[in-house]
Amino acid sequence: MRGEPIEAIKVGLETMVAALRQDPYALETVHLSMITFNRYPEQILPLTSLEQVQVPAIAQPAAGGTHLGEALEYVCKKVGEEVKKGDREQKGDWMPLLFILCDGRASDGQLFTQILPEVQRSHFGSIIVCLVGNKLQPENAKLLTDKIVHLDTTDGPTFRKFFAWVTVAVCEGNRSLGSTVGEPPLPPPPPEVNTVI
Amino acid sequence: MANTIRITATDGTPVAFVDEIIGSGTMKDVYFSPDKSYVVAFFKQKQDGNSKDRLENITGSYKDKIFNQPGGEYWQDLYCWPDKIVEYNGKLGLICPTYQKNFFFAKGSKNDDFLGIKGKEKEGKWFSSAKNQNTFLAPEERGDWFKYFQICIRISRAVRRLHAAGLAHSDLSYKNVLVDPTTGRASIIDIDGLVVPGKYPPDVLGTPDFIAPEVIATLHLAANDPSRKLPCIATDRHALSVMVYMYLLYRHPLRGGKVYDLDSRKDEELSMGSQALFIEHPTNTINRVKLKELQPSQLPQSDPEKIPYTVCGPYLKKLFDRSLIDSLHNPAIRPTAGEWEEALLKTVDLMQPCSNPSCWHKWFVFDNTTKPRCPFCKTEYKGVLPLINLYSSRRAGSFTPDDYRLMVYNNQYLYPWHVNRNISPNEKLTADQKKPVGYFVFHQNKWLLVNQRLHGMEDNTEKKAIPIGQAVELTEGRQILLSKEEGGRLAIIQLVQG
Questions:
Q1: Interface list for B 42-101 with A (CB within 8 A)
Q2: Are A11 and A160 in contact (CB under 8 A)?
Q3: pLDDT in tens, B112-153
Q4: Domain that holds residue B419
Q5: Does domain A4-79+94-172+181-192 have CATH number 3.40.190.10?
Q6: Do the chains contact at B123 and A27, CB–CB below 8 Å?
Q7: Contact between A93 and B205 using a beta-carbon 8 Å cutoff
Q8: Which residues are CB-neighbours of B229 under 8 A, at least 6 positions away?
Q9: What does the alpha-carbon distance between residue A79 and residue A75 come to, in Å, rounded to a whole number?
Q10: What's the whole-model pTM score?
């Protein structure tokens, strides 16, 4: 992703943070971390409580390639370091939600396959893959999760709607639970986002 | 600019809305009318015949049962009750009045509203959490402790009225109750999910933090399993007790330090469900709050050692014991909304203004000791503090205690419900009964009760009448007959030297 889409993501993230800050439940509980990846993953925002988050600049990718496997390995490492695990004495943090924005490609296919079991072991509350662009490869995403959405266009309004949806998903914790058994469903994606499956 | 859509409600009246979603919940999308005097909320999913029938009753006979009674207008402020039903593009919708102006933030957050919440709804969660109170809210929005009692009284009263009509709200939570600590007002919203046992089953299980333990403990059972517990009046009572605890103490009564399972989801299910345990249980201490797990922004309110639930006074302590200990896992014996209302009202009469101008709570409940002090800022009361024990007569010539006390402070009023045991301060009060009948004043180093409107007031100790416009000094042991009417009370004065 280059140019305008990157700027649109930044605006989308800023809108999301501002919206989350208007939710009293989110303010009490939500922490955010952001990791970008191309050939290398980089944590541009360490796990930070919502009120202190400042959305950092997102650099244009200098190197080619999308090392999704390496990025996931890095995410798992950071979850291990930064998310407080509970023990018999002390309650841990909530299970993290992982949102991945990518085109679905993994230039490091072998590592990606190797890392999948570790992702499963990392106990994410939910993994949501958002496929961006028009040359999509949903196969890898399907190995990660069944929650896949697809953004056709990468303009500002589309990202804004997507992040509004993410905001609702993050705030879901304090919504009314439906009377049917099971975990509460994610809200339906906005109309511009197409669910792949 | 979005289009305005004009349709006709099922009762034949015209309805218009601007085709732009202003809010969205689990069940509905909400749109404003062009003049913003009402909203139209469309259900996202198709409603079956039973749900439609329920909505017809909610906007019809249930509404009439509560509002079209003598004094029914009192409830307008306490509920945001749906008026009409509409159908548009195959979707069912409800018309509700727009929330009153005082339920939207006027200032919002600190530092010139750095969160940008000015104009947003005053969702209860903002006010029931220590961190939100201490870190984010503008001081003008926070209100004082007295206002939170008024809020709890109004919520209890509104829930009591629903239950008296045989209806359960089914999703009482700080999300579904708007509160205004600047005025002490509260309003119950999202009334469309009302549950009638045996007739209309619940759509939702409730909101985390407020779902009754038996509902969470039986989540895994099939919906038609007879052992499965679903929202009903008894679960509303649990939600109400949690809400009162949270609005008065700014922490959750069941969220303590005990870890029941290493899997956080299972831990949540156990700690809010089958293993739920009051964090301030007097003998079972395993779920005590762990100080090291609290953030500085949550202090001091989140530390029950510093601010125990007993600061809410004897009447509420008794109800918290019953709701959070005795009946936590025994829904049949939970305190009713009416009991909460009564205990809160009696507690308000035990409140004293704190003499420390920078005390945030500004009020405290008299702790029944000879050395009264504010439990929040620790400021001691200086001077003579009169308290009035109220007695009433069930048999001519003899007075028995009503378990009702009134703390006196300067410029406090005496009301008809203090004077007569047959009058309660609730929606049934007449306009005349809302007016004070006397007041207390500290004048030239004496505490006086001034009679404004009581015809039969008598000083029983000195056996003489206290005519209207005259005062009687409050001295230790003095007996004042407030009224000679049926249910009239005798006041016996006690003085505490602070």
A1: 44
A2: yes
A3: 999 999 999 999 999 999 999 999 999 999 999 999 999 999
A4: 383-497
A5: no
A6: no
A7: no
A8: B212, B214, B215, B217, B218, B235, B331
A9: 6
A10: 0.90
